[in-house]
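A quick aside before the break. I want you to see a complete sequence-to-structure record at least once, exactly as it would be stored in a machine-readable document. Don't worry about memorizing anything.
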Amino acid sequence: MRELYAWFMVFYVPVSLCVFALAYVAGWVARGVSDRETSTPSNTTGGAR
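That is the input. The structure line, written in tokens, reads:
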């Protein structure tokens, strides 16, 4: 049982970190794309809020 727990931690921790990093990067890229799309002066007032 202890070996199973060790393997679970060995695989679960890096996978969870990778998923968190991918989600963070995806959110950052989505914000960058949305900021670029709404860079026109008519949309800057309501986009950030």
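Two observations worth writing down. The first helix runs from residue 2 to 37. DSSP finds two helices and no strands in the chain. We'll return to this after the break.
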